[in-house]
Each structure stands twice: as C-alpha cells, then as structure tokens.
C-alpha cells in the first residue's frame, strides 16, 4: 500500500492504522487527526488503500475542532456517569469551545461544574482509547432504540448516508461531527464555562434542554490566557457596560430580546437616527413611514411567507378563513407598494426610499444577547429602484454611505467584507433559476472588484432573492455579526409587478438594491459601546458636560451655567450635592461624561470655569464663552478623542 505524504511516497502493509503511519513519519507527537485523500479521520482509523496522507495539528482549525469535539465527548461520558438519568442530545464546537445539550431530570446549575469536571479529569487520567466504530444505519438505529435514546434517534434520522461512524470508550458510544483524538488522555487543559437553555433542534416548539459550554487547549498556559481574555471581554461586553451606564435594561415580565432604553440610551439612539436620516436626505433619499404589520398576503407576494415564515410573528390561523396579520420582519414589500402608487418614467429613476423601521424577528432564546440579537429592533432600512444601467453607480453610492457612517463612528478599521452567495445544492431556499443567480452574482462580483473592495465569499448566506455584500464586525467575544448590508434583488420587482416606462415608451422591469446604511441601530450601538467602553465621542454622548459646585456658595452659578449650556444645544447636567469635589469628579468619570466643569469662589470672582476632560485631564481655566465655542466645534466636527 502506497501512502503519499508531502513529496514522499512510502510503502505500508495493508491494513495499517493512521497513527502507525504518523509514527513512521515521526509526526505522531503533534498529530491530532489526519486527512486521507482530503477526508478527515481519527488516527485510530484503519487505512487499507493507496492514498494521500495529511497530518492535522492544533494549529489547524480542523485540529482545534477535533480537540474540542473530544472534550465534548468526555463531557458527555462524565454526565452519563454523574447523572445516569440525564438524556443526551447532541454536541458540537462553537468558536473557541465546545457545547453539549442534555435533558436533565433534576436541573443543574453552574455550581455543579466542579463535580462534573472532577469526573472529566478522571476519564482523561484513565487515558481510555477512543475507538472508531463504523456500522450500518440500521444497526445504529437498533442500538439507540434499544438504549431508549430519543434525541439520538431523531438526530440519527437526520444524518445522511447508509453508514454511521461512532466513537466508543468502554461502554460509552457517541457520534461526532468531527473525528476524535486517539484517547481521552490526549486532552491536557479543559474547562467548563457556562450553561444556558437551548431548544431541541433550535425550535422553540420543542423541549428546552440544558446546554453546557466549555473550552479546551493543548497547554494549560494557553487555557489560562484564554480565561483571562474571557474575563476582560466580559468587562467590555456592551451588555454589562450598557446596564452599568443606564443605557438599557431588560425585564423578565416583558421578555427576552425586548430591551428597554432608558433616558441615556434613548438619547444616543435619537442622535444616531437624526444624523442618519439627515445624511440620507442629503443623498436624495425619500423618507417613508409604513405600518409595523400587514395582512400576510403582502408577504405571500414577496415570498417571505414561504422562505422566512419561521422567523416571523403573526396573529390568526392561516388554515382558517380568518385574516392573518404579520408583524413585519423588513420594510421592502411596503416600500415597493409605495413605488407602485403612480406610473414611473425612466426620468423618475433612480428612486431611493429610506425608513427608520421597527422590525420583528422570532429569534430563538438561546441566540439572543444584549442588543446584538433581539426580537424587536430598529433598522435603517432602504431600497433603491433603478434601471439596470444605473445599478453599479447606485450600488457604489450605497457602499459610500455606509463607509461614511463607519468613518464618522470610528469603526471603519474594525470590519471585513463578505460576498454572500446562494447555495446551488440547497436551491429550494431561494427564488429564481441557476441562470438568474449566475448573472446576479457575476454582476455583483464585477461591481465589488471595480470598487476595489477586498472580500471573502460565503456560499449559502445570500438573501432568498439575491446576492449581497455584508459588512461584518466582531464583538468583544470574537463572534462575527453582520452590521450593514447591500443586496442586489433580481426577483421581487417581478413578484410585485413593478415597472417603469423606458425611453422608447415601453414597459420595463427595474432592478432593486436593498441596503441598510447603519444597519440595526441596536446592534451598531452595541458595537459602539464596546468600541469606546461606553465613553462615546462628545457629539454622541448622552451627557456632554457636568457642571459641579465646589461649595454650596456657588450652586446658583452652577445652575446658571447649566442653563446657558442647554440654551446652546449642549447637553449638560449639574452636580450640586454636598459631596467632596473628588467624589463628584470620580462620579463623572464613572459615568463617562466627556467634560466636567468646576465652579468655586475663585471661578466666580474671575468669571471663569475650571475644565476637565475625561481622558486629557485638567485643561485649565476658561471663560464660559471660550468653553462653549470649543465644545460646539468639537460637536460639529464629530471628532473622536480617544
């Protein structure tokens, strides 16, 4: 049997384990798994044919998934030993860690992690071989039925192929999306991190299971560094900072994914919205205001009812004669209806509609976090209806608007671009033919290349009606999320019978660009909170200036200074508490107020104020006029002082 490794060709007796091949190649000390003719396998896999051989290490993404899948396998075995009545669902890898879902008869808490980790350490110390077991689907189905494993039976039914690969240690069996290590003792540093609820198969109509998260590394020092980073990220998480600063809150009586914006948070959102709407108006956008709900007929026409219904909230029974009303997940069908109100000529195009829209999407409870993924959100939604020959220029204009906003908010260096394409293998998710998609994707690729945008491609991430450019950002935990998007739509103009009269007096079909100039306000705000640690640039700060009295004798002057600042459009508050000045300054710092003004007896005598900046420190004495002029310029310029 000939095995090709890099440029070497080696002879082996058949059959041979992948580990023996790695050992002969003297790479067994770093190998976690292997690839045989490009397909991933455990090192315990038996090789019985000529093949190419590749080694998989922890430095590879696949290696990390192999390592952490093994940790999840050990977790599942530990749960079986510690909680024999718990039913196992499925596990997987996620970002820097792993997870596993269980149906516990007796609820557990994070305080139970110690005994679970103790059992995991015992399994790892035992260095149990992890055997690869390949069997028929029928045999696997018989095994899970006999073992009374309903979740495994349902999971097994969803797997493809006539054979099933499982992994075994002693009397414990489990399947895995990725190959596993040769033995449990290969794990070096494992830590359980958290637990949460997770609906079975992500469907809220199913039972809520308990999901345990963990992580694993080859070295304890790497695990320690990771855990320190996690703690640092928690302190910078917008969910913590936003609550600490009184920007937003949630309440269990209102529900998950439905944040309440308090005065400071509401003010920041208002400032963002005014800025966006004013800039869009300068660029020729026409403002619309449409209902938050409609009859589902509208979404049947658009195709959302067929392709997006599971993400929608609706009232009424579609199987009955009663009217069904749906809360809108997007505004496009409403703005298309406005476009159809009156015949359009080629001279009227392009038409650019924009709306600050309240939208609703049925997110699973386990997916929601702070402001970044919620059930009711506000989108800077917009649609450009144009002629085919206007498409590239209008697309470029939409991208330019997004880039302008990112520059002003100081996040242009924190994003990447993704060309989201359809998945030909899952064509039922989309409308249109292969020819439609090929033409649309080729057009978008040409536009992106002409714009000089560096992008990655992601198959299966397109909208159901066309390809899109997604601007991606990462939160402090490293999770990637879509912030802004520009989409080419080749389908919905036909569905809504949208037309214009061309230069020849003939009816013609327009193209549509869907775009969100600042994306979801709440998600963008979450990114800004984390970017600035809650210390917003002056123009965006809910409280821009705090005026503090040094003694009770200057309270009147402090209140007057506040009044004058407010009259100039500067958001100011007064601190006239009977507290020491040091505490007042510290409190202003904690509240992330950009400027603190101090007025004492000397300032009253000289007609000045003492000015402090939250990061630059003491700026000395100024007249109120000098200070107001300086601040008004900084606000108008939208300067970012880090």
Tertiary shape: globular
Largest sheet: 8 strands, mixed
The low-confidence parts are none
The proportion of strand residues reads 25-35%
Q: From the alpha-carbon coordinates, what is the Rg to the nearest angstrom?
A: 30 Å
Helix/strand-derived class?
alpha+beta
Number of DSSP helical runs: 19
Strand order of the largest sheet: 17-21-22-29-26-25-23-24
pLDDT average, as an integer?
A: 92
Instruction: State the separation between the terminal residues, measured CA to CA.
Output: 63 Å
Proportion in helices: 25-40%
Q: Give the beta-strand count.
A: 34
Describe what this molecule looks like in 3D.
- This protein is of the alpha+beta class.
- An 8-stranded mixed sheet has the order 17-21-22-29-26-25-23-24. A 5-stranded mixed sheet has the order 2-1-7-4-5.
- The longest helix has 22 residues, at 61-82.
- 36% of the residues are buried.
- The mean pLDDT is 92.
Topology of this protein?
Blueprint: E1 2-5, E2 8-11, E3 16-17, H1 18-24, E4 33-36, E5 39-41, E6 46-47, E7 51-56, H2 61-82, E8 87-94, E9 97-103, H3 113-125, E10 131-136, H4 137-146, H5 150-158, E11 163-169, E12 172-175, E13 189-199, E14 208-217, H6 220-236, H7 238-244, E15 248-249, E16 260-261, H8 263-282, E17 286-287, E18 293-295, H9 296-302, H10 304-307, E19 314-315, E20 325-327, H11 332-339, E21 351-360, E22 376-386, H12 391-409, E23 415-421, H13 434-451, E24 455-459, E25 468-474, E26 480-489, H14 492-495, E27 500-501, E28 507-508, E29 511-520, H15 521-532, E30 545-549, H16 555-567, E31 572-575, H17 581-590, E32 595-599, H18 601-606, E33 609-613, E34 617-622, H19 624-637
């Amino acid at each position: 049997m000939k095995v090709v490794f890099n440029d070497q060709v080696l002879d082996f007796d058949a059959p041979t384990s992948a580990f023996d091949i790695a050992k002969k190649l003297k790479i067994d000390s770093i190998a976690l798994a292997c690839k045989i003719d490009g397909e991933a396998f455990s090192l315990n896999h038996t090789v019985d044919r000529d093949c190419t051989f590749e080694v998989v290490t922890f430095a590879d993404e696949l290696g990390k998934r192999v390592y952490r899948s093994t940790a999840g396998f050990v977790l599942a075995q530990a749960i079986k030993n510690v909680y024999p009545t718990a039913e196992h669902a499925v596990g997987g890898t996620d970002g820097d860690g792993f997870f596993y879902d269980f149906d516990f008869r007796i609820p557990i808490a994070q305080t139970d992690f110690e005994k679970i980790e103790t059992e995991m350490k015992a399994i790892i110390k035992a260095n149990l071989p992890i055997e690869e077991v390949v069997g028929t689907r029928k045999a696997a189905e018989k095994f899970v039925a006999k073992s009374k494993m309903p979740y495994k039976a349902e999971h097994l039914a969803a797997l493809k192929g006539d054979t099933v690969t499982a992994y075994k240690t002693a009397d414990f069996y489990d399947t895995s999306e990725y190959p596993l290590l040769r033995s449990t003792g290969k794990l070096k540093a494992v830590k359980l991190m958290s637990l949460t609820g997770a609906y079975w198969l992500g469907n809220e109509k199913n039972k809520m299971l308990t999901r345990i998260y963990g992580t694993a590394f080859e070295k304890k020092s790497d695990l320690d560094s990771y855990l320190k980073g996690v703690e640092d990220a928690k302190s910078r998480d917008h969910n913590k900072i936003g609550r600490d600063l009184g920007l937003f809150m949630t309440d269990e009586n209102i529900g998950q994914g439905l944040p309440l914006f308090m005065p400071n948070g509401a003010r920041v959102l208002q400032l963002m919205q005014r800025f966006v709407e004013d800039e869009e108006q300068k660029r020729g956008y026409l403002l619309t205001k449409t209902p938050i709900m409609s009859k589902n007929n509208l979404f049947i026409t658009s195709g959302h009812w067929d392709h997006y219904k599971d993400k929608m909230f609706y009232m009424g029974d579609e199987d009955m004669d009663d009217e069904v009303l749906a809360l809108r997940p997007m505004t496009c069908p409403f703005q298309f209806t406005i476009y159809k109100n009156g015949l359009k000529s080629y001279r009227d195009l392009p038409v650019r509609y924009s709306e600050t829209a309240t939208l609703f999407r049925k997110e699973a409870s386990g997916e929601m976090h702070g402001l970044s993924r919620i059930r009711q959100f506000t989108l800077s939604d917009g649609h450009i209806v144009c002629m085919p020959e206007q498409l590239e220029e209008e697309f470029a204009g939409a991208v330019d608007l997004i880039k302008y906003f990112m520059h002003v908010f100081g996040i242009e260096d924190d994003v990447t671009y993704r060309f989201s394409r359809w998945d030909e293998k899952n064509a039922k998710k989309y409308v249109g033919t292969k020819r439609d998609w090929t033409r649309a994707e080729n057009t978008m690729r040409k536009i992106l290349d002409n714009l000089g945008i560096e992008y990655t491609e992601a198959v299966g991430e397109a909208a159901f009606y066309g390809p899109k450019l997604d601007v991606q950002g990462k939160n402090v935990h490293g999770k990637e999320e879509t912030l802004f998007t520009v989409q080419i739509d080749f389908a919905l103009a036909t569905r809504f019978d949208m037309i214009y009269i061309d230069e020849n007096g003939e009816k013609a079909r327009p193209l549509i660009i869907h775009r969100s100039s600042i994306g979801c306000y709440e998600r963008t705000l979450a990114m800004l909170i984390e970017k600035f640690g809650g210390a917003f640039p002056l123009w965006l700060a809910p409280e821009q200036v705090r005026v503090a009295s040094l003694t009770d004798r200057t309270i009147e002057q402090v209140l007057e200074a506040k009044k004058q600042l407010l009259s100039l459009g500067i958001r100011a508050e007064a601190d006239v508490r009977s507290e020491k000045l040091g505490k007042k300054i510290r409190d202003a710092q904690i509240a992330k107020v950009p400027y603190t003004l101090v007025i004492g007896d000397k300032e009253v005598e000289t007609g000045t104020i003492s000015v402090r900046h939250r990061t630059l420190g003491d700026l000395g004495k100024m007249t109120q006029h000098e200070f107001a002029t300086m601040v008004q310029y900084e606000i108008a310029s939208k300067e970012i002082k880090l």
